[in-house]
């Protein structure tokens, strides 16, 4: 079974460069067991797929999907103060001077998602293993994994940034603003990630819980968090960063009321999110193509 799945995955990755639409339709059918409707998309996942073929090939999407060059965009929008501290940018792992880095840092490749290395103790870091992993990532065409064209033309780099942690040494809460036609509509809040049992909530822009399954279950368990200090500031930043796009998810961290930029996301879960359910319909209704 693993061999079959690996063969199918490899075939779809190969086909993404020859027939991206076929690959996208195949991925969608495998995930949802139904056909992808690109002529008249209705739900959120379908509309994200539509945007891949009709919107996401422009230069602004390459710029903003690039985890390094997006910093230029953030500055151009007058939001440079929310950028995390950058220690270095490298063309390859051999250029990294690990001795010059602090004891804690975050390292990532700029041309995709999931290419992250979190170092909270440099003395225990296996540099050889780390460099091998970075080299593997740099060789990958992330855009072909699930047909995400905004990553295709990114000049591949390695970034090293400041390690972000809260008072207890864990990850800060993160807030992902779903913005439609230039305006934030909903925020997904992830709380408790450092404990290994993250909880996900969806709120509107007045901090009212949205009727999505995960949020309703947590409300029924009396686990509804209060609006945090800094929420309105994040909302203002989301407005500023969303103006140029039909859809973008603006991701932030909140640390003691300080807003820290995470990334701009155009294809959440590559348009293949099976956990959305009610959200798939509601968010899809907000996205006007």
Mind explaining what this structure looks like?
The chain is an alpha+beta fold and 289 residues long. Among the domains are: 60-162; 173-266, D-amino Acid Aminotransferase, Chain A, domain 1 (2-Layer Sandwich). The chain has 9 helices and 9 strands. The protein has helices at residues 2-16, 20-32, 44-54, 59-65, 70-76, 127-138, 213-220, 231-242, 278-286; strands spanning 86-90, 105-109, 116-119, 158-162, 173-180, 183-191, 199-204, 247-255, 258-265. The strands form 2 sheets. A 5-stranded antiparallel beta sheet has the order 7-6-5-8-9. The longest helix has 15 residues, at 2-16. The chain is globular.
What is the fold's blueprint, element by element?
Elements: H1 2-16, H2 20-32, H3 44-54, H4 59-65, H5 70-76, E1 86-90, E2 105-109, E3 116-119, H6 127-138, E4 158-162, E5 173-180, E6 183-191, E7 199-204, H7 213-220, H8 231-242, E8 247-255, E9 258-265, H9 278-286
Antiparallel strand pairs: 1-4, 2-3, 2-4, 5-6, 5-8, 6-7, 8-9
Helix pairs in contact: 1-2, 3-9
């Amino acid at each position: 079974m693993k061999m079959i799945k690996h063969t199918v995955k490899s075939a779809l990755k190969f086909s993404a460069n020859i027939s991206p639409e076929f690959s996208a339709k195949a991925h969608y059918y495998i995930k949802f067991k139904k056909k992808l409707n690109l002529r008249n998309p209705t739900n959120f996942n379908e509309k994200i797929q539509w945007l891949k073929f009709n919107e996401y090939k422009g230069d602004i999407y390459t710029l903003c999907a690039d985890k390094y060059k997006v910093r230029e965009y953030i500055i151009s929008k007058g939001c440079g103060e929310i950028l995390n501290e950058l220690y270095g940018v490298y063309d390859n792992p051999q250029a990294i001077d690990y001795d010059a880095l602090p004891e804690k840092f975050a390292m990532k490749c700029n041309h995709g998602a999931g290419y992250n290395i979190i170092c909270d103790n440099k003395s225990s870091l296996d540099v050889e293993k780390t460099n091998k992993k970075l080299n593997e990532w740099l060789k990958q065409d992330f855009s072909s994994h699930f047909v995400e064209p905004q990553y295709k033309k990114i000049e591949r780099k390695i970034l090293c940034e400041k390690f972000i942690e809260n008072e207890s040494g864990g990850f800060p809460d993160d807030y992902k603003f779903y913005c439609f036609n230039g305006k934030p509509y909903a925020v997904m809040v992830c709380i408790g990630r450092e404990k290994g049992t993250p909880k996900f909530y969806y709120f509107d822009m007045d901090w009212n819980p949205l009727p999505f399954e995960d949020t309703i279950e947590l409300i029924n368990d009396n686990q509804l968090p209060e609006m945090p200090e800094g929420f309105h500031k994040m909302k203002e930043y989301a407005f500023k960063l969303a103006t140029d796009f039909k859809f973008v998810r603006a991701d932030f961290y909140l640390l003691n009321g300080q807003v820290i930029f995470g990334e701009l996301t155009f294809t959440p879960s590559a348009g293949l999110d099976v956990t959305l359910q009610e959200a798939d319909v509601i968010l899809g209704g907000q996205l006007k193509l």
